[in-house]
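TL;DR need structure tokens for one chain.
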Amino acid sequence: MSVGGIGAEPGQPAPAVAAALAAAEIPPSKLGPARRARLTEEERELYFWILRRSLRRSMVRVHSL
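>> reply
TL;DR here they are.
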């Protein structure tokens, strides 16, 4: 997510990003640190493991092009 863009308050999404999030009905509780604040330590570890694994798999596909 683009944060601190032109016309944005520090730590807030750029206006175009904020508009897109609002149009998609994505609440602030689903963004940044707030989206994982309710997770236990074990859930957070799993969450980051999934993100890292997805990143590695997408990088492999890009390199094979």
